[in-house]
């Protein structure tokens, strides 16, 4: 393709709103352009990279017997109401009404749609297992779109769905999908980890996220320093035992603590270590008030709390609700003499404490010398805190370390979460109606593109892996006004195109410096420059990633390019 005929607008400076490298480079190199906050157009060169990623996805899906289809992006609310997700999915679901007042959602995901279709079309165990997928634009009303393609309101996603007759069959499909996803990300050249994750609004129990390691990642991965264990920090259990303090319990006292709101404020005011205070947080768990108690130096993990209660909805109580139910605002909450309308649960670490401080449920007051079991009761102790670096690895091997990651894929064992609610059944081999067992599997195609750039770039621009790059060769004619350069460049272009090589031909009437700068920005793996030695039939070939460069005769170029891509 001749560059003079293409829409590839490049920029010298980074866009003001671009905070991370992938956002900066994809905009500067003319791969994407923003239409509105979190909404991007893929320009021709960007579309080519998307197509390369899609092709890898399709090949890996075909290998495991998953077949492509395409479902509507406009989804009737009735389907979402069958599963209850019309209310539980939250504000990210984009809802619209048609001219007749009927409610629809712009597809954020398609579990309801595919389940509705399969329940109508699949009747017998002989039609199972079944796996289908699509590559389609999805919509989510992000509160704060940022980081370019990594957190948008409109994005390209591959979503797959499996229907099985048993959990054993689901396990087999899940493993196939897991390996297919691993293959996709390996083929994209990514350094990634598959980590244990939470299913969130998707439902189901067993799930893994595929995380690309990157400092700009919004998720934290907890991993062992000596084993293969890895989990999203939300899901990593704490396998630490706590030794009960041998202090003698003292009499509880109420102390005036004016204007001391945070755990650090209170600890400094009372003159004790942070871990000698109790942190009390009030949640609404499916409309039930629950107060969590952790050590002052620990952070409560709301995902663990949600899973403890097997809840559909969990949220922090408002300060007004805290004052109404407990009698005090944030900063003064505590478990002593708390209302019967509030259930108190505590982290395992709390059970070992003696003579600690906590809020007195009265503004500006705290209790000291508080001991669990003596001064307040706990309905149950559980693992409620976030794991920390240095904690023992949950698999018993090594210590926990943290890394940041970009989520590019997610696989779920949904079980009967959707099929039971939507009455998706089949007749088993004994003629009995049986609920289908489901799985759901997603890859963020546009996010994957951005994640690749986060791992493949340098100070000059993008350095695409060879099989993902928009073109295989970037051919530069430094001065097309000179007949010898134009003739040689045209001849090489035709030779490479006829041989099936993907070529971007910079035939523009631009300065050499502009062409070199743009070429570095684009990140095409091989650059062939036709310059001063054109009259000798000699060109310069440069490898973008390694910067190795060679002078080659015209007759050597095709053989070099072909062999380079084979190696």
UniProtKB/TrEMBL annotation:
Cellular localisation: Cytoplasm
GO terms of biological process kind: prolyl-tRNA aminoacylation
Any one GO cellular component localisation term in the record: cytosol
Enzymatic class: ligase
Gene3D superfamilies to which the protein is assigned, alphabetical: Anticodon-binding domain, Bira Bifunctional Protein, Domain 2
UniProt GO molecular function: aminoacyl-tRNA deacylase activity; ATP binding; catalytic activity, acting on a protein; proline-tRNA ligase activity; transferase activity
Annotated ranges, domain Aminoacyl-transfer RNA synthetases class-II family profile: 33-465
EC code(s) of this entry: 6.1.1.15
Reaction it catalyzes: tRNA(Pro) + L-proline + ATP = L-prolyl-tRNA(Pro) + AMP + diphosphate
Domain of life: Bacteria
Main location: cytoplasm
A Pfam family reported for this protein in Swiss-Prot or TrEMBL: HGTP_anticodon
Alphabetic keyword roster: Aminoacyl-tRNA synthetase, ATP-binding, Cytoplasm, Ligase, Nucleotide-binding, Protein biosynthesis
UniProt-listed InterPro entries: aa-tRNA-synt_IIb, aa-tRNA-synth_II, aa-tRNA-synth_II/BPL/LPL, Anticodon-bd, Anticodon-bd_dom_sf, Pro-tRNA-ligase_IIa, Pro-tRNA-synth_IIa_bac-type, Pro-tRNA-Synthase_IIa_type1
Keyword Thylakoid: no
PANTHER family found in the cross-reference section: MITOCHONDRIAL RIBOSOME PROTEIN L39/PROLYL-TRNA LIGASE FAMILY MEMBER, PROLINE--TRNA LIGASE
Domain notes per entry: Consists of three domains: the N-terminal catalytic domain, the editing domain and the C-terminal anticodon-binding domain.
Binding partners and assembly: Homodimer.
Family in the record: Belongs to the class-II aminoacyl-tRNA synthetase family. ProS type 1 subfamily.
NCBIfam families: PRK09194.1 (NF006625), proS_fam_II (TIGR00409)
General function of this protein: Catalyzes the attachment of proline to tRNA(Pro) in a two-step reaction: proline is first activated by ATP to form Pro-AMP and then transferred to the acceptor end of tRNA(Pro). As ProRS can inadvertently accommodate and process non-cognate amino acids such as alanine and cysteine, to avoid such errors it has two additional distinct editing activities against alanine. One activity is designated as 'pretransfer' editing and involves the tRNA(Pro)-independent hydrolysis of activated Ala-AMP.
Protein name: Proline--tRNA ligase
């Amino acid at each position: 393709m001749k560059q003079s005929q293409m829409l590839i607008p490049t920029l010298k400076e980074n866009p003001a709103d671009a905070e991370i490298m992938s956002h900066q480079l994809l905009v500067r190199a003319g791969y994407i352009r923003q239409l509105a906050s979190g909404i991007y157009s893929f320009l021709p060169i960007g579309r080519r990279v998307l197509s390369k990623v899609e092709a890898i996805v399709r090949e890996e899906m075909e290998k495991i017997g998953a077949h492509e289809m395409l479902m509507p992006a406009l989804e009737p609310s009735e389907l979402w109401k069958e599963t209850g997700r019309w209310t539980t999915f939250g504000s990210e679901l984009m809802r619209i009404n048609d001219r007749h007042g009927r409610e629809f959602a712009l597809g954020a995901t398609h579990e309801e749609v595919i389940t509705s279709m399969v329940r109508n079309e699949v009747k017998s165990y002989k039609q199972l297992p079944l796996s289908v997928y699509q590559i389609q634009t999805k919509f989510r009303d992000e509160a704060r779109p940022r980081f370019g393609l990594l957190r948008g309101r409109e994005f390209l996603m591959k979503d797959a769905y499996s229907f099985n007759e048993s959990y054993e069959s689901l396990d087999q499909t899940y493993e196939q999908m897991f390996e297919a996803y691993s293959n996709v990300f390996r083929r994209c050249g990514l350094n990634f980890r598959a980590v244990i994750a939470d299913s969130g609004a998707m439902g189901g129990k067993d799930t893994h996220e595929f995380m690309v390691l990157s400092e700009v990642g919004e998720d934290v991965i907890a991993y062992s320093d000596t084993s293969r264990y890895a989990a999203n920090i939300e899901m990593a259990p704490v396998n630490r035992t706590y030794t009960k303090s041998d202090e003698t319990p003292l009499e509880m006292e109420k102390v005036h603590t004016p204007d001391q709101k945070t755990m650090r404020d209170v600890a400094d005011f009372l003159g004790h270590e942070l871990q000698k205070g109790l942190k009390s947080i009030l949640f609404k768990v499916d409309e039930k008030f629950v107060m969590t108690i952790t050590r002052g130096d620990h952070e409560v993990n709301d995902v663990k709390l949600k899973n403890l209660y097997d809840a559909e909805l969990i949220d922090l109580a408002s300060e007004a609700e805290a004052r109404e139910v407990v009698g005090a605002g944030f900063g003064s909450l505590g478990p002593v003499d708390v209302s019967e309308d509030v259930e108190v649960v505590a982290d395992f670490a709390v059970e070992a404490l003696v003579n600690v401080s906590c809020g007195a449920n009265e503004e500006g007051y705290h209790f000291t010398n508080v001991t669990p079991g003596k001064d307040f009761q706990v309905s149950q102790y559980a693992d409620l805190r976030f794991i920390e670096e240095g904690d023992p690895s949950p698999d018993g091997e090594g210590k926990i370390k943290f890394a940041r990651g970009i989520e590019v894929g997610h696989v779920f064992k949904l079980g009967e979460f959707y099929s039971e609610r939507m009455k998706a059944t089949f007749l088993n081999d004994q003629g009995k109606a049986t609920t289908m067992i489901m799985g759901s599997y997603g890859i963020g195609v546009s996010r994957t593109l951005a994640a690749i750039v986060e791992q493949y770039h340098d100070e000059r621009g993008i350095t695409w892996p060879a099989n993902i790059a928009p073109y295989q060769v970037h051919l530069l004619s430094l001065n097309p006004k000179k007949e010898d350069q134009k003739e040689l460049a045209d001849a090489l272009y035709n030779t490479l195109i006829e041989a099936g090589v993907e070529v971007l031909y910079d035939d523009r009437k631009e300065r050499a410096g502009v062409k070199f700068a743009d070429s570095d920005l684009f990140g095409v793996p091989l650059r062939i420059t036709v310059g001063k030695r054109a009259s000798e039939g000699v060109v310069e070939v440069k490898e973008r990633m390694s910067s190795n460069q060679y002078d080659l005769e015209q007759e050597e170029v095709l053989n070099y390019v072909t062999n380079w891509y084979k190696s």
